[in-house]
Sequence to fold (276 residues):
Amino acid sequence: MSGFEIYAFVVCLIVYVMLTGVFTFMISKIFKLSLQVVRAGLDDKRIKYEYLERKLNNKGRKKAVKVFDVIFSFIVCVIMLTIFTFSLILNATENTYFENIPTLRIVKSSSMENKNKLNDYLFENNLDNQFSTFDLVFVYEAPDEFDLQLYDVVVYDIDGEKVIHRIVAIEEPNMYHPGKRLFTLQGDSISSPDSKKVTYSQIEAIYRNEKIPFIGSFIYFMQSPAGWMCIILVIVAMISSFIIENKMYEAERIRLEAMGFLLPLYEWEHKKGGKK
Fold:
């Protein structure tokens, strides 16, 4: 992690801990007050009504809803963890390239987003393989030096930064650089070439017109400290909600027992008919 990423992580962690602490305190206070209300009998009317309604009209409904909630929460957790794992794998393998297996990269620049009107070669050669910021592009290991062709889109390293641009000129080996080619690259949206020519040793991968639009923004967020903490918060919130719900249900059950309301349905109906 770079210095800025460490700084961002620390700031996010501090904010996360503070907000989590505040919300945890508020939720625990509300939960304790709700328990006290139930145990003190101040909510008996609602508890009795819901119990009788459930017994007479909603047989099995609560159980079905609870099962649905559990399944839904499980699916959400699995999706979140899958995306998180995928983002980690993507981050760990973004500089590893294979000839036939794609490496996925998130586009973080708009330099290849559209055709600049001044770049005649784009229109003359029908070069329509542009991509936008936060597209997820598939790239492959760069071919041999002399297999690279004019207008190929490649990933190259310039001063430690990865750039995806198009080859717009190739200078073949000569007396000034024998045995190697020099490549001039340019973004389709930009009207002028990159300031520095590139050697083959700087070119790492080639783009073969395969992409998934826009999904990179979500993955990019998941790779950030804020994304990690968001996932943790969602999972903790789901687990906490189940714990709170079960405790409230147990408190209401104990209160119903104290009121003598936990009777089999046929007994309750018999008593009700007897009063008539």
Notes: Residues 264-276 have pLDDT under 50 and may be disordered. Strands lie at 103-106, 136-141, 153-158, 161-171, 182-186, 198-199, 203-212. The radius of gyration is 31 Å.
